[in-house]
Amino acid sequence: MRAKVDPDICTGCELCVQTCPDVFYMKGDVAEAKDADVSSENEDLCRQAAEECPVEAIVIID
Q1: Distance between CA atoms of 31 and 25, rounded to whole angstroms?
Q2: Which of 45, 52, 53, 62 is 20 to 30 A from 18, comparing alpha carbons?
Q3: Residue 32 is part of a domain; what is its CATH number?
Q4: Measured in whole angstroms, how far is the alpha carbon of residue 60 from the centre of its chain?
């Protein structure tokens, strides 16, 4: 599984970074997802971050 953040939608609230810092990080004013497969131990947190994103900027790719 992979995660992607749409930089045109992201507001930079950092909720995803706080929820799953192994996958998400801030790049300037917006969040970005690491360009790698999400480890199995981070999958649940990554999905949680996507579900909790207030502007639905995170896409999960299975």
Answers
A1: 6
A2: 62
A3: 3.30.70.20
A4: 9
